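Example 9 (inverse folding). The structure is encoded as follows.
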């Protein structure tokens, strides 16, 4: 009997909670466990919710939830299954009855056609069902039972299916059976020697979050082929225990049922709900839809994530399940919109795309755990994969591609940058000629154009960088890069999964930190978040481009690479320190997806690039414009009254040094001088805390150069100071400065996102203090040691 049928005032004892996943966990946490007494307090037919008393307090459950709780009511006349020595039927208490009933496990065999389900059913139950090497005889479940180690095991043999969509009668049957009969444990039978295809169904079952054990059937064939499978690790990675079986002979069957009992009694350590990651494009759609679906609390047997995936797929069953909901129209419209977007971006239909990602998940899981026996024929993608994920050549290939990326960013970006620079210069000239001298002119020329203009020049570089990042992501190479880095990442106490957020950090640390959400382990995620700011984002690119272009034009690509590598090195050291002192190591293995190779579509890349360009331009018009004007004002006032006549270069420098900004710069100068930075540079660094691009805009505002504005900022930096006659920047100062900019204070936006994602402002504060201290020490060492030689 189910709890939903219990009459008011009647007592009952709980036998078990059916259903699965988060729903089951929550109900159990509320106290609905085997042997507990429960009383119905309010239960009107067709009324929701129902009120119960359990463990001395009142709990309301929805009718749909109460339907999934099995009970024995008081005065139940049924006799017990004859399998224990509890004495006569009259003497046993309800608790004892529940105990015995609770030892009945309903299991269902699910798997592809011809995987050996019926053979398994036969050896287990002693029945003699027809076994045959063909598929789809009947669309029907066969049931049997047997007693094992004090448990009564009811076993059902379901028709074979390749998936759980609802296209074929078998698929529909199996899915309805699992939902309506709610077996306690599903046994997913897979052919051990054909895992790639068989595990597809497994990913669907994982999505539905059932209690599950995998029977690795036909293990004899796998062994015969000479292949090797680390099934323990594989099971840990996908959160489902695996047991090798040979159902033809019965080998491994006892172990299988021991494991089933462990899972049923929630004692198995491998059991864990994992998300089969479906790649950034699809995941984004799922997230939005999932958040909407969360609002509806009616369909608790299914996780919102599962419902969202099925809505995106346009699954008929789930649609009709949700159709009665008042919000259905809204969900439907949203899922249609998301589907169209996803299909346009990936240029394939959604089911195909999801299937591809699932195969990517499987392929990634097998890559780490499975070694082929005999030589298989090699396809082109396989050969490419073998090459780029090869331990010896994989990493050099990766480094080479990174170098190409930076070289192209710099060299190709230089041409359009020159055109923009020329345009900005022409605009300045124009204003110079036709505007009367005075604060307004100075504001426009030095504040607005000097500040924003010096940053906008780098738009082409940023676009090129994003072009490469999108290319690597969309083609599937990024996932391979993560793969080859897995071993390396393990050395610093992280996992290959942390690698993608780190690479994304080259674009912008903010979305990169948000991308850490795919990392299941809390400590790995925190470490990945905290080291992310050391991965040099594109906002720092203008600074590098300016200084490297000015001081090391001949070796630009290499200097770039070294700067980025220093960031990576500091990130590694930091990760190690964090692992050592703050978070102790945890060893939960995860699947790293190997999605299929795709020729990236021009559309997807254009969309990525335009997205970034838009963001950049918006920042330009907002934060950077305002900050540039503020910095200009702080550097302009107090100003001598001789507004009508132009100041000489020397007067100008004196004026600036005396300005509010100059005073602020000199105030912190004592701390910065040991690094080789004068007050102007110090001021630029202060303003860079708002956004790193502001470092260049500030230099653009402060280094106004000669009066007729014909020089570029780069040339201005090479000019000696008119007062001291010395250059502010030498190559050594430039290096010290580059390193400082790379490492210090993450920008405000990063700090906010760190605090949010890491779960506390203390992590934001940690990032500020730690990063700035590291930057100072590194620059100090570089400048002081360098000064000894130069
Ligand atoms: P079902 O379609 O999933 O019910 O699969 P069957 O139980 O009908 O088995 C299909 C074929 O696989 C039969 O010829 C079985 O004899 C064979 N088979 C089942 N289990 C094993 C096994 O563990 N090893 C080997 N080598 N063959 C098996
Ligand atoms: Mg069969």
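The amino acid assigned to each position is listed next.
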């Amino acid at each position: 009997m189910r709890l939903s049928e219990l009459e008011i005032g009647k007592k009952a004892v709980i036998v078990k909670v059916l259903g699965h996943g988060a729903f089951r966990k929550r109900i159990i946490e509320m106290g609905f466990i085997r042997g507990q007494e429960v009383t119905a307090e309010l239960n009107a037919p067709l009324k929701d919710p129902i009120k119960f008393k359990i463990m001395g307090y009142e709990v309301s459950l929805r009718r749909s939830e109460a339907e999934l709780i099995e009970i024995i009511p008081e005065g139940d006349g049924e006799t017990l299954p004859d399998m224990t020595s509890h004495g006569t039927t009259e003497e046993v208490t309800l608790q004892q009855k529940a105990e015995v009933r609770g030892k009945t496990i309903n299991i269902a065999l699910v798997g592809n056609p011809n995987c050996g389900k019926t053979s398994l059913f036969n050896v287990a139950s002693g029945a003699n069902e027809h076994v045959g090497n063909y598929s789809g005889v009947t669309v029907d479940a066969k049931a049997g039972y047997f007693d094992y180690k004090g448990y009564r095991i009811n076993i059902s043999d379901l028709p074979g299916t390749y998936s759980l969509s609802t296209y074929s009668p078998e698929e529909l049957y199996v899915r309805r059976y699992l939902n309506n009969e709610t077996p306690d444990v599903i046994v997913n039978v897979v052919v051990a020697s054909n895992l790639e295809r068989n595990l597809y169904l497994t990913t669907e079952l994982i999505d539905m979050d059932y209690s599950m054990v995998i029977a690795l059937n036909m293990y004899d064939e796998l062994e015969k082929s000479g292949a090797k499978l680390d099934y323990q690790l594989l099971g840990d990675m996908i959160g489902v225990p695996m047991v090798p079986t040979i159902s033809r002979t019965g080998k491994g069957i006892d172990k299988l049922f021991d494991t089933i009992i462990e899972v049923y009694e929630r004692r198995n350590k491998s059991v864990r709900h994992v998300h089969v990651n479906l790649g950034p494009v699809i995941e984004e759609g799922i997230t939005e839809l999932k958040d909407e679906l969360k609002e509806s609390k009616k369909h608790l047997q299914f996780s919102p994530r599962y419902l969202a995936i099925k809505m995106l797929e346009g699954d008929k069953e789930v649609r009709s399940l949700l159709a009665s909901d008042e919000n259905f129209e809204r969900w439907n419209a949203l899922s249609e919109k998301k589907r169209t977007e996803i299909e346009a971006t990936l240029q394939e239909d959604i089911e195909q795309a999801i299937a591809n990602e699932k195969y990517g998940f499987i392929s990634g899981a097998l890559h780490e755990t499975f070694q082929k026996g005999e030589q298989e024929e090699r396809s082109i993608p396989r050969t490419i994969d073998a090459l780029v994920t090869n331990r010896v050549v994989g990493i050099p290939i990766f480094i080479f591609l990174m170098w190409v990326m930076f070289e192209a960013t710099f060299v190709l970006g230089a041409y359009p940058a020159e055109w923009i620079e020329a345009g900005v210069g022409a605009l300045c000239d124009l204003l110079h000629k036709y505007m009367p001298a005075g604060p307004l002119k100075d504001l426009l020329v030095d504040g607005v154009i000097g500040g924003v203009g010096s940053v906008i020049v780098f738009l082409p570089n940023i676009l090129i960088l994003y072009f490469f990042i999108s290319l690597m992501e969309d083609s599937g190479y990024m996932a391979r890069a993560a793969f080859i880095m897995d071993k390396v990442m393990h050395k610093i106490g992280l996992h290959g999964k942390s690698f993608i957020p780190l690479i994304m950090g080259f674009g912008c640390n903010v979305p990169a930190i948000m991308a850490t959400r795919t990392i299941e382990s809390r400590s790995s995620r925190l470490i990945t978040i905290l080291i992310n700011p050391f991965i040099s984002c594109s906002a720092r690119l203008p600074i590098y481009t300016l200084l490297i272009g000015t001081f090391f034009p001949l070796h630009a690509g290499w200097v770039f690479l070294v700067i980025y590598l220093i960031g990576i090195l500091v990130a590694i050291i930091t990760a190690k320190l964090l692992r050592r002192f703050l978070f102790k190591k945890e060893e939960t293995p995860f699947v790293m997806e190997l999605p299929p190779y795709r020729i990236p579509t021009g559309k997807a890349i254009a969309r990525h690039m335009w997205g970034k360009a838009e963001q950049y331009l918006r920042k330009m018009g907002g934060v950077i414009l305002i900050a540039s004007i503020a910095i200009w004002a702080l550097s302009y006032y107090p100003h001598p009254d001789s507004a009508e006549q132009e100041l000489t270069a020397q007067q100008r420098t004196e004026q600036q040094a005396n300005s509010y900004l100059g005073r602020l710069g000199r105030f912190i100068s004592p701390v910065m001088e040991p690094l080789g930075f004068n007050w102007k540079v110090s001021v630029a660094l202060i303003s860079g805390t708002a956004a790193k691009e502001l470092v260049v805009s500030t230099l653009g505002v402060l280094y106004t150069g000669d009066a007729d504005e014909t020089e570029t900022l780069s040339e201005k930096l090479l000019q000696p100071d008119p007062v001291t006659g010395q250059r502010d920047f030498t190559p050594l100062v430039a290096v010290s400065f580059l390193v400082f900019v790379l490492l210090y204070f993450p920008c405000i936006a990063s700090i906010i996102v760190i605090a949010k994602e890491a779960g506390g402002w203390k992590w934001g504060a940690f990032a500020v203090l730690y990063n700035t201290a590291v930057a100072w020490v590194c620059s100090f060492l570089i400048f002081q040691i360098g000064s000894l030689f130069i």
